[in-house]
Design goal:
The protein is about 50% helix and about 15% strand. A six-stranded parallel beta sheet has the order 3-2-1-4-5-6, with helices on both faces. It has a four-stranded antiparallel beta sheet with strand order 7-10-8-9. The chain is elongated, with a radius of gyration of 32 Å. The protein has about 325 residues and is α/β, with parallel strands linked by helices. The protein has three domains: about 1-105, Helix Hairpins, CATH 1.10.287; about 120-245, Rossmann fold; about 275-330, Regulator of K+ conductance, C-terminal domain (Alpha-Beta Plaits, 2-Layer Sandwich). It has eleven helices and ten strands. Helix 2 (about 15-40) packs antiparallel against helix 4. It is a multi-pass membrane protein.
Length: about 325
């Protein structure tokens, strides 16, 4: 009695699709074995009997094997009613499971199982543009979007995995597989006060770094006062969007077409024409003015220098290049 209860409990935890699959396989093998025993002349091997049974169950019916005796035909009738019924249920169960998984993926309840992906947190026009730019620059990279306001992922982003929920919760970050992510972008939520939005971004940063301290994290901050707190939370890069927008508006007001220049500069970046070139050993010790002609001949214009984490735009021409320096260059479309 206890063994029977154990078997019932065990079977209760087996998915319906698995049960139906075993039912189809079992009925096919049993019927194939019976027709081989009943008509060994026509079904000369076990495999031929099983082959006929599965062809019958699948409703293909090649007609290469046909039972002749009455008892074998009775077995065929039973197989058609039982086996075909199981097969129909199996196919519909697979179809239902596929539809359910697809709907669950749209609603953001399926966990992401990849690695080396980019996680974008928060849905807004900035994150939309960021996803589009990432897909253009790195079409092979996987992107995971975390947001709690969307009901389902927008249709235009078919290659983005959506996770619905609060990004500061560990369970939601685990669902996005944050521990194996390449980088994270945290956008500010423009609802309520700017202080509340920044506090939420900082809390998300703490949660992200708690699960993956090494992941490169870029955080959008709205108030200058919270920059230090975001860095203390572990943000690798803070972008003060309000200040950037205000500076562009002011510059465009004082110097018309400034925004056009900035937009064109950003287009170079989106098209992967803005690059950081590591200074080679041959260039170490040479002045910046000496390196300009060679780079220009290659279709690259030096506009700045990155040294010790600092960006220097339009450095002095006599500046000597040092090891680990990176030249900021704009490549032309014809550059090789």
């Amino acid at each position: 009695m206890q063994q029977w209860l154990f078997i019932r409990t065990l079977l209760g935890h087996v998915p319906l699709v698995v049960k139906l699959l075993f039912a189809v396989l079992g009925s096919g093998v049993l019927a194939g074995a019976l027709v081989h025993l009943l008509e060994p002349e026509r079904f000369s091997t076990w495999f031929e009997g099983i082959w006929w049974a599965f062809i019958t169950v699948s409703t293909v019916g090649y007609g290469d094997f046909v039972p002749e005796s009455t008892i074998t035909r009775v077995v065929a009738i039973v197989l058609i009613f039982v086996g075909v019924g199981f097969m129909t249920l199996l196919v519909t169960s697979f179809a239902g499971a596929a539809v359910s998984i697809n709907q669950s993926a749209k609603e953001g309840v399926i966990s992401f199982i990849g690695e080396d992906h980019i996680v974008v947190i928060g849905w807004n026009e900035r994150s939309r543009q960021s996803i589009e730019n990432i897909q253009l620059a790195l079409p092979q990279i996987k992107i995971v979007l975390i947001d709690e306001t969307l009901d389902e992922l927008p249709k235009e982003f078919k290659n983005v995995h959506f996770v619905k929920g609060n990004s500061s919760e560990d369970s939601i970050l685990k669902q996005a597989n944050i521990s194996l992510a390449r980088s994270v972008l945290i956008t500010a939520k423009h609802q309520g006060s700017e202080f509340t939005a920044d506090a939420r971004s900082i809390l998300t940063t703490l949660a992200v770094k708690g699960q993956n301290p090494d992941v490169y994290t870029t955080v959008e901050i709205l108030t200058k006062e919270q920059l230090a707190n975001a860095k203390r939370a572990g943000a690798d890069k803070c972008v003060e969007s309000t200040t950037l927008t205000g500076s562009v508006l002011t510059s465009n007001l004082l110097h018309q077409q400034t925004s056009d220049v900035i937009n064109q500069f950003l287009e170079y970046n989106e098209k992967n024409l803005l690059e950081f070139e590591l200074v080679t050993e041959k260039l170490v010790g040479r002045s910046l003015i000496d390196t300009l002609p060679n780079f220009y001949k290659k279709g690259m214009l030096i506009i700045g220098l990155k040294r010790s984490g600092q960006i220097l735009f339009h450095p002095h021409s006599s500046l000597l290049l040092e090891p680990n320096d990176e030249l900021i260059v704009i490549k032309s479309n014809k550059a090789t």
